Amino acid sequence: MRLYISGDTLAYDGLDEITDHFPAADLAVLHLGGTRLPGGFVVTMDGVQGAELARRLDPRLVLPVHYGDYTVMRSPPSAFLAEADAIGLGDRIVHCGHGEHVRVPVDAGAAPEAY
What we know:
By secondary structure, this protein is of the alpha/beta class. It has helices spanning 16-21, 47-57, 77-86, and strands spanning 3-5, 27-31, 61-65, 102-103, 113-114. The longest helix is centred in the middle third of the chain and has 11 residues, at 47-57.
């Protein structure tokens, strides 16, 4: 399983280097939420940025995480899901809510399974 884990980052052109060195990730775990700290400083991707990064990385599956964990998060998961659908990535999203678990198979033909 080849993973990409974004951590708290923002989408920017420098991230394109990832696919140059590590193409075809099986799963991209994207930390979202559009976190805004006092003064307007943004430290996590919002829905639009997350979908754009997913498009650039072109992983087999995408797992959005870290949204809604703090009161400073301004972008709900619905914003990411709508944008991912709009750019044709909706069928790649792995849905796993807070406190839930999901198994992501290595086999490209198998679907993720909640447990």
